[in-house]
DNA sequence: TTGTATGCGTTATCAT
DNA sequence: ATGATAACGCATACAA
């Protein structure tokens, strides 16, 4: 509650002298500087963020916007952002839900990283148009104040399909992501191309939406039509896990009857039996790169570049050779 | 960038009229109100958070402080907070790291929920003393401006130990949590009591710190001394998972030679084989209750109550009957 | 080296 | 019903 005014009174100087002393301005005497600082400490003085940012027109706070707080997925990503931003003197806050979009527009944030389908492109472009800086992780958006740091979805999906084909699978299911998802769209497009490049593969698409229940339902569909080993590309690991759960109650075995590749290589992928083959990338790096570009965008005003985060396939027992022995389950 | 001043100019009225119109003050004519609103929309007017909170001395933003952004643990908890706060007109931001503690002190937040061992008690008490409101989830702290919403750790630990004893185990290990952790301390204390209440049980404590590697190391210790089936209470699930990993490379089997109970009932607990018995509670409810109390504390100034979150034991194959057949592994 | 004065955008009090 | 004005806490250009 103590303000520079209170300090000024106690120190017998003016508020500007206090301000100078507090901000290390060399104009002030070492003596008065010390006096002011000691009084400030005694009064537990803390600068008021609202007043300072009203004046300086910056907050030194960046925001990360997520579609949801749930799921094991974002920890490393956020950690990567936080560390990188911390080095540059920024704090990071995580926001979620359309209600919190106001934090962006009301000027509480110096910049933001977006991984949130609840933002419309129009909303983001309007915000950029008003002079604010953004990094988008989940869409392609061209604007001088926006930089994209995108996963290499196409490479990942291609790896996944090619892995299944290399293991001899000629019947492949693709379990897709939710309608609005940019990642899902890119993965689907690349997966289709990979299938088509190989004329002999039969491919069927099942609608999913990145959560476990949708993977569970997809598995039920696959079982209903089962007449021999199949490959499945689940466009994320959550759905693959849902599929494991569904198959656990049946005579069908992962890696034997149903061969699964996921995407994201989340922690659980390492613990399920058999281990889930999945497309992997460094979440931490993704976050760090995004943060780095955002700071650049703000500091150098427009000199930041779009970036791509590379992926690789991590093998696992969830994909075996397509063999005719497995035609009958159990 | 447009301010009420700009709107006033365009509308040919004073800034106070604009302010009234924008805030729905009935003193202003319906006609001018409409004009002001339409101009505001045309100018993409957004109120400036810094100016408003400088004046009103509130931000309508609450903060949740976490020790780390990593780990699958906090999703539901935060969701519970966000939903509850949203209903009451508050936004929630998630913060982590000592650097971000400034957001608290600088008045950017109307209140905060603390689950972060990097805060010292002194720091929190000082903050409360300055008039701010806090809910703590990870310590006991008595102050008129602080309310506690704590897990019933003692009941949980007691359940865990009693479960092992009920299954016939007479040799029990307790894998503890990190030094500073309030939850760990409470669990340990209750576990010791539960053991002592039953005179015939041999008990040994192994130091852990809530992460997987420490569970892994504890398992190695247990194996080294193995001479018959043992019960293990891992004070959280992460360490239990680490133990699973360690045992996977040995002839010892979970639920046969080493019988494990965890705490938190995290998602992975359902996917490991055999399923991990663990102390469960509703994260979502925990978050919602914390949020509710925080709002109360701010609105009614001191009329909020300390709350306790109840727990229950979820059984799993990780604990079987203590049987002498299992004395020799493999 | 220090003090005075102004303005950031808003709300709110007091006139008119 | 509307306008002029002060105040919130801080930074800073300018005066002394």
Largest β sheet strand count, sense and barrel closure of chain A: 6 strands, parallel
* Count of all domains of chain A: 2
Largest interface: A-B, 51 and 51 residues
Give the name of the CATH superfamily of the largest domain in chain A.
Response regulator
CATH class of the largest domain in chain A: Alpha Beta
- Rg estimate of chain A, integer Å: 26 Å
Low-confidence stretches of chain A: 326-330
Number of helices of chain A: 12
* Quaternary structure type: homodimer
Average pLDDT rating of chain A:
94
Report how far apart the termini of chain A are. 72 Å
Q: Widest sheet of chain A: strand order?
A: 2-1-3-4-5-11
Structural summary, described in words:
Chain A has helices spanning 4-11, 15-22, 30-42, 49-56, 75-87, 102-105, 121-129, 153-166, 182-197, 212-224, 237-248, 283-300; strands spanning 61-66, 91-96, 111-115, 133-136, 146-151, 171-175, 202-206, 230-234, 258-263, 277-280, 307-309, 312-314. Chain A has 330 residues and is an alpha/beta fold. Chain A folds into two domains: 48-151 and 284-299, Rossmann fold, CATH 3.40.50; 153-280 and 313-329, Rossmann fold, CATH 3.40.50.2300. Chain A has a six-stranded parallel β-sheet, with helices on both faces. In chain A, helix 7 links the parallel strand 3 and strand 4. The longest helix of chain A has 18 residues, at 283-300. Chain A starts with a helix and ends in a 16-residue tail after the last strand. Chain A binds a DNA duplex (16 and 16 nucleotides) through residues 3-5, 13-17, 19-20, 23, 27-29, 32, 47-48, 50-57.
């Amino acid at each position: 509650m103590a303000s520079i005014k209170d300090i000024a009174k106690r120190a017998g100087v003016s508020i500007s002298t206090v301000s100078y002393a507090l901000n290390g301005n060399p104009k002030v005497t070492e003596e008065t500087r010390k006096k002011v600082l000691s009084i400030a400490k005694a009064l537990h003085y803390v600068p008021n963020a609202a007043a300072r940012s009203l004046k300086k027109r910056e907050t030194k706070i960046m925001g990360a916007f997520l579609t949801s707080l749930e799921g094991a997925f974002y920890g490393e990503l956020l950690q990567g952002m936080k560390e990188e931003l911390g080095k540059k003197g920024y704090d990071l806050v995580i926001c979620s839900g359309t209600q919190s979009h106001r934090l962006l527009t009301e000027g509480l944030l110096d910049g933001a990283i977006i991984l949130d389908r609840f933002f419309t492109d129009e909303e983001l472009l309007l915000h950029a148009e008003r002079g604010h800086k953004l990094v988008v992780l989940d869409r392609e958006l061209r604007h001088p104040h926006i930089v994209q740091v995108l996963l290499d979805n196409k490479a990942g999906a291609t790896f996944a399909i090619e892995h299944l084909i290399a293991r001899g699978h000629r019947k492949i299911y693709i379990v897709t992501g939710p309608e609005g998802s940019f990642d899902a769209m890119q993965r689907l497009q690349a997966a289709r191309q990979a299938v088509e490049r190989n004329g002999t593969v039969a491919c069927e698409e099942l609608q999913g939406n990145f959560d476990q229940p949708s993977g569970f339902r997809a598995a039920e569909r696959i079982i209903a039509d089962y007449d021999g080993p199949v490959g499945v590309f689940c466009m994320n690991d959550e759905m693959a896990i849902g599929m494991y759960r569904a198959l656990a109650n049946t005579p069908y075995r992962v890696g034997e009857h149903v061969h699964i590749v996921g995407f994201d290589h989340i922690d659980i992928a390492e613990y399920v039996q058999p281990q889930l083959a999945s497309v992997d990338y460094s979440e931490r790096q993704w976050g760090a790169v995004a943060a780095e570009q955002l700071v650049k965008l703000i500091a150098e005003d427009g000199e930041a570049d779009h970036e791509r985060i590379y992926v690789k396939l991590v093998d696992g027992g969830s994909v075996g050779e397509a063999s005719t022995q497995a035609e009958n389950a159990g």
